[in-house]
């Protein structure tokens, strides 16, 4: 794990460059109308075709690696003797894409909260680059939206420094790209659906210009068109990504590049890096399940 992490730091610059090239190639292909035959885009219902959803996270500023590290971290909740994460030793750099996998209740969200410094380790150390900006998505952040405010007002309060003649129009254009219909831009957030609130959170994350995205079940409220838009945006994002999702298609799409992707398995109270791709992890899991059924 340590060797992998060291290697990760050395190759991170290469990964970012490679990723930029991949992103350029992808957008070139898109403009040529070339479609990846392995993953045909799903049919989009007619009523949704009146606006184009196009999630986007801006290219982050450069930072010296490592961006984020957990060093020999252990953690347990007070009064929860049946759960503990121990000896967690992981790191993330620009260009790294991490999929966190493991059984229900194993500690995936706990690990995200340790990385985001919402939880303090019982032992060990969390290190972060000083100027690091982290964009976080989870249901908790959707619930934290100030409900009486409309999205435009909310976003302008959180991100007041917008460039452009009309700050309102700049924000409305961004909300539109993230798929919030214009009718809802001045509606109190409390009156929006779960999916519409999720779009406000994603717009806010994008406006914060993060170096790392930490995403806990980001597809829960999204329709197919928006899941594809999110996958495209993550594919093109040149910062670091840490993803927990039950949507294996999203993980396959985003963490498909062996060079930059890592699979962290949270199980039996610790975190191990899986020595292979997500596809190989899924196959190994299926073999284990078949073996258990045969027994
Ligand atoms: N705030 C908390 N206080 C006490 N125990 C907690 C708290 N949050 C989570 N736990 C417990 O810690 C363990 C790990 O929870 P966590 O949510 O990190 O797992 P997970 O792998 O993300 O689960 P799932 O896949 O079901 O979302 C569980 O047993 C859970 O009940």
Automatic annotation (TrEMBL):
| Disordered as annotated region, ranges | 1-42
Q: Which SMART domains match?
A: AAA
**Example of a GO MF term:** ATP binding
Q: Which UniProt keywords apply?
A: ATP-binding, Nucleotide-binding, Repeat
For whether the record's keyword set contains Acetylation, the answer is no
The record, for PROSITE patterns, names: ABC_TRANSPORTER_2
Name assigned to this protein: ABC transporter domain-containing protein
Q: Does the keyword ATP-binding apply?
A: yes
> What organism, scientifically named, is this protein from?
Heracleum sosnowskyi
Q: What is the lineage of its organism?
A: Eukaryota, Viridiplantae, Streptophyta, Embryophyta, Tracheophyta
Outline the extent of the ABC transporter domain: 68-293
């Amino acid at each position: 794990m340590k060797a992998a992490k060291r290697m990760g730091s050395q190759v991170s610059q290469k990964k970012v460059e490679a990723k930029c090239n991949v992103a350029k190639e992808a957008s070139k292909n898109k403009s040529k109308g070339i479609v990846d035959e392995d993953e045909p885009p799903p049919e989009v219902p007619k009523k949704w075709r009146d606006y184009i959803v196009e999630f986007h996270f801006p290219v982050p500023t450069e930072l010296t690696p490592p961006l984020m590290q957990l060093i020999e971290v252990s953690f347990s909740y007070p009064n929860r003797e049946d759960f503990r994460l121990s000896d967690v030793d992981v790191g993330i750099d620009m260009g790294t894409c991490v999929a966190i996998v493991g059984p229900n209740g194993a500690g995936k969200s706990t690990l995200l909260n340790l990385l985001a410094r919402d939880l303090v380790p019982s032992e060990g150390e969390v290190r972060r680059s000083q100027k690091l900006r982290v964009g976080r998505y989870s249901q908790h952040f959707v619930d934290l939206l100030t409900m009486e405010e409309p999205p435009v007002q909310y976003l302008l309060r959180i991100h007041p420094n917008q460039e452009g003649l009309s700050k309102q129009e700049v924000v409305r254009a961004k909300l539109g790209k993230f798929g919030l219909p214009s009718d809802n831009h001045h509606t109190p957030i409390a009156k929006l659906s779960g999916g519409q609130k999720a779009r406000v959170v994603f717009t806010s994350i994008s406006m914060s210009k993060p170096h790392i995205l930490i995403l806990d079940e980001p597809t829960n409220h999204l329709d197919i068109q928006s899941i594809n838009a999110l996958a495209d945006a993550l594919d093109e994002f040149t910062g670091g990504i840490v993803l927990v999702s039950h949507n294996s298609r999203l993980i396959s799409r985003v963490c498909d590049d062996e060079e930059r992707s890592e699979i962290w398995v949270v199980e039996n109270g610790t975190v191990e890096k899986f020595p292979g791709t997500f596809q190989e992890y899924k196959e190994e899991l299926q073999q284990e399940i078949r073996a258990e059924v045969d027994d």
